[in-house]
Amino acid sequence: MSTSDPATPRGRTWLVLIPLLAFTGLALLFWRGLSGNPSEIPSALINRPVPDFILNPVPGLAAPGFASDTLRQGKVSVVNVWASWCAPCRLEHPLLTELAKQPDIQLFGMNYKDEPENAVRFLTTLGQPFAAVGMDRDGRTSVHWGVYGVPETFVIDGEGIIRYKHIGPLTPEAIAGELAREIEKAKAPLPAAGP
């Protein structure tokens, strides 16, 4: 067989194109998956009880920790997962301070993978709006809650059922709109499951 055989270069061209086409296909698949809005990722925990947990208080902060039983005491709760190193948490914090003034809810803070002294400094500087602040230093409780990153906010009904999850920082529009609607819905009992 001579090197001028036209079949040989064409065969090599296809061998080169196969990995290139496979790479292009994978790149398009990843791009499509990553280009979605992360705040629209559904949570498998919606309409399910909060996972069992006990979070100790943040050392040095004059606020108690809290546990899953705390969220089953008949009042709608809003749980905000935050960290001192999280820039969006700093931006949403004044909104949480206003939200905490609503008499029909209780606001809890889950401090995520933070150093206690940094968490205390954050709340001392910006204000402490939470009824209780639990320290999730290793992130294990947050993983059980399905937290993707901070900040995230959950609405829990009085029976301890997760009714809503907001991914990302809260905005005035989100609080006045979707969060307010979900808090109102959480005040009503869940519909009974069908047969």
Topology of helices and strands:
Elements: H1 7-34, E1 48-49, E2 54-55, E3 66-67, E4 76-82, H2 87-99, E5 105-112, H3 116-126, E6 132-136, H4 140-144, E7 152-156, E8 161-167, H5 172-187
Parallel strand pairs: 4-5, 5-6
Antiparallel strand pairs: 1-8, 2-3, 4-7, 7-8
What does this structure look like?
This protein is 37% helix and 19% strand. By secondary structure, it is α/β, with parallel strands linked by helices. It has two domains: 1-36; 38-187, 3-Layer(aba) Sandwich (Glutaredoxin), CATH 3.40.30.10. The strands form two sheets. It has a six-stranded mixed sheet. The protein has a two-stranded antiparallel ribbon with strand order 2-3. Helix 2 (87-99) links the parallel strand 4 (76-82) and strand 5. The longest helix is centred in the first third of the chain and has 28 residues, at 7-34. It starts with 6 loop residues before the first helix and ends in an 8-residue tail after the last helix.
